[in-house]
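Human: My hope is that you can spare some time for a protein that puzzles me. I am handing you a single protein, as its sequence and its fold in token form. Could you go through the record with me and say what the backbone is doing? Take your time, and here it is.
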Amino acid sequence: MTQLASAKIKKPELNRHTLRLIWRVFWEHARKYPGTSIVVFLSAIAMQIIAVTMPWFLKMFLDTVTNTALQAAEINRQLMWILGIIAALEISRWTIHRLFGIANIYMRANVMNDLSLTAFSNLLGHSHRFFTNNFTGSLVRKVARLSRSFEEITDQILFSIIPLFVIVTGILIVLFKRHIVLGIALAIWILLFGVIYYFIAGWKLKYDRARAEKDSEATGTLSDALTNVITIKLFSNYDHEKTIYRNVMNELKRLRFWGWGIGEAADGIQALLMIAIEVGLFYAWIRLWSSGQVTVGDFALIQGYLIVLFHRIWDFGRVVRRVYESLADAAEMVEILNTPPDIKDAPSAKKLAVSRGMVEFENVTFGFHDKRKVLENFSLRVKPGEKIALVGSSGAGKTTVVTLLLRFHDINNGKIMIDGQNIAEVTQDSIRTSVALVPQDTILFHRTLTENIRYGRLNATEKEIMDAAQKAHCHEFISRLPYGYDTYVGERGVKLSGGERQRVAIARAILANTPILVLDEATSSLDSEVEALIQDALKNLLKKKTAIVIAHRLSTIMQMDRIIVIDRGKIAEEGTHLDLIARGGIYKRLWSLQAERFIK
């Protein structure tokens, strides 16, 4: 499990490079909506400018009330004028806020949607090896985190960071204007506060990053256990799985404890700094007021600004933590987005054109690891319309031949040709729309039977779907279901038996009607009666098609044009069933073992 959890994609560090990648991904998606984004950010700034302006008019209000040099009528006139300005500012802020809200909803909803679609599209483009090295549950979590991270970071920027920047700038300008001592005192405090929080955030960051990674591992562990719940029940290994999950969760708990503990300590330091600046500014005001350099209104101005500033500063610690946590959450998916797929189409790749269906392997060498070659100098030619079978012991390389033909992996050396076209020089999609595969372990979508069969050809009519189902002998069991072809098959097709799933896969291949067909133990999950029916259907299906059949049950391939015996990544024998039996080699031994087992 450790190897799988670590995955091919290394856990990215939240360094400058990774942060640039994250911001670039967010920017590339946000800039698709330039007008809306500009309205959102300008509105956010405008609202805070008004917020900074309001305490100034409160100062003017108090200074006017306490001005003994003015007549009552003049005081009343000035107060009404100030009140009118305050009302106009409030109405303006309300109007801007509504505009901001509408634009923000539109921009954020669209960008989050686009991010999810980009992540989904990118994952589908990765190779078979990528998915064998990553937990499905973890990948799902990473996709969801990417859009949620954008939402959280955008919220913090619009509702906390921009307001704080505008408010701090405005307050400093006003206080410097009132008296340089007040401005310098607050400027020094803000600088000190920023330095302290910079180091606290950096200290906490490693715990946030580790927490995100461990959270992904916990999700993957949970998903792995739930996927294999039947195996757990069969072997009564409840306690073993609980121990594995408990160990991961305990480590996650430790990381949460330290991360949250650092956050709590930061809050305590923050509170002390706030007390210090409040007392310091009030002391400065008292000294300046005593010498007549400031007014009572300035006291209200300072108090109003401190309330606004403290509100923003107090949230700032949480803002920093949430931003870093969101960046850590986004980092893994962004790293995947910036990791080129293992298998890529050549820049000049054209669509594969199949007119005859000839398949050729020319001196193909391939290995999953440098020290272990599955195929070495492997050569095989399948004539147009020829039906061949690949047999051999487990691990001999039979399935590898098929996966290489579909270009799930790139070979180390040699060439694989279809009708004289190197599959490395054509598009992957065109290969897979020309070669249909019926796998041994069929996995279906949690969709209706109609949708699962139609997956072989999306534009197929209802009649064509039913015809394919009848040829694959699906129609019989589908007709007995309460909802017939509209029945949902459950996750991975769990509501169907293995044989039923296999027949659906065969129906899908029949509907695809590709010139090249690959059967990987296509009848392995069927009982003898249904197998006989399917074999008859496959004879009609295989007419005028090139077919490669992987078989362990040798009785199913006796009528093949040619049987290829693979041993240790090389062709050991080839010929018809009778030829190979007469030769007395590996095939004869395998046949005898199966025949003796059958007789017993």
